[in-house]
């Protein structure tokens, strides 16, 4: 709790977030830890919060290395998306979309147990990812669902199989808009 989320970064306790505000549930059954940019203007404006080395030795260094590696994967993926759009591979870099990256890592823990209630409980309630892309590292545990067509009612949710150690790539709202719905 000493690292409670501040300026979008830090720890978020169980049930503290509700991604779908229309639900009457107490909140999503997950806890999370957020960290973002390591350098640049955003890192200065929104500094990451880290546990002390005494509590979690090498954890900060490990997470910073992970952040850099995932950011590199994301940049390569955006190059492939640009090529698929018949643009130059470095299109997103040239237009400044990757300047001072706003990428945020969200480490999530779903306890697998929910409080007894008459209200439905979700690990992460229905939402869309608002950015360009989301990379979800999977551990083989099922639970993720996607709705391929947000405009159709009722929404049809499909299970997404997780492959241990693989990333699932979600196209975010921003990329959907930038591509006029070609990438959804």
Structure description:
This protein is α+β, with helices and mostly antiparallel strands. The protein has a domain of 98 residues. It is 22% helix and 16% strand. Strands 1-2-3 form a 3-stranded antiparallel β-sheet, with no helix packed on it. Strands 4-7 form a two-stranded antiparallel sheet. The chain is globular. The mean pLDDT is 88.
Order of helices and strands: EEHHHEEEEEH
Widest beta sheet: strand line-up: 1-2-3
Helix content: 10-25%
Name the shape in a single word.
globular
What is the SS-derived class? alpha+beta
Terminal residue distance: 37 Å
Keywords: Iron, Metal-binding, Oxidoreductase
Family: Belongs to the iron/ascorbate-dependent oxidoreductase family.
Protein name: 2-oxoglutarate (2OG) and Fe(II)-dependent oxygenase superfamily protein
Domain Fe2OG dioxygenase: 101-184
List the helices and strands and how they pair.
Blueprint: E1 10-12, E2 31-35, H1 41-45, H2 59-84, H3 91-94, E3 105-109, E4 133-137, E5 145-147, E6 157-159, E7 167-171, H4 173-178
Antiparallel strand pairs: 1-2, 2-3, 4-7, 5-6
Domain Fe2OG dioxygenase: 101-184
Keywords: Iron, Metal-binding, Oxidoreductase
Protein name: 2-oxoglutarate (2OG) and Fe(II)-dependent oxygenase superfamily protein
């Amino acid at each position: 709790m000493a690292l409670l989320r501040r300026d979008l970064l830090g720890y978020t306790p169980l049930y503290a977030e509700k991604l779908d505000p229309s639900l009457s549930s107490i909140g999503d059954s997950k806890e999370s830890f957020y960290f973002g940019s390591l350098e640049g203007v955003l890192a200065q404006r929104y500094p990451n919060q880290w546990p002390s080395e005494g509590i979690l030795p090498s954890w900060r260094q490990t997470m910073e290395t992970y952040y850099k590696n995932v950011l590199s994967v994301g940049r390569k993926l955006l190059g492939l998306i640009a090529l698929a759009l018949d643009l130059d591979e470095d299109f997103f870099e040239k237009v400044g979309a990757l300047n001072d990256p706003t990428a945020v890592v969200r480490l999530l823990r779903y306890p697998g147990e929910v409080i007894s209630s008459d209200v439905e409980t979700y690990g992460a309630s229905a939402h869309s990812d608002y950015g360009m892309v989301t990379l979800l590292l999977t551990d083989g545990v099922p639970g993720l669902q996607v709705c391929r067509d947000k405009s159709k009612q009722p929404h049809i949710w499909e299970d997404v199989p997780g492959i241990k150690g693989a990333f699932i790539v979600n196209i975010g709202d921003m990329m959907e808009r930038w591509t006029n719905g070609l990438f959804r």
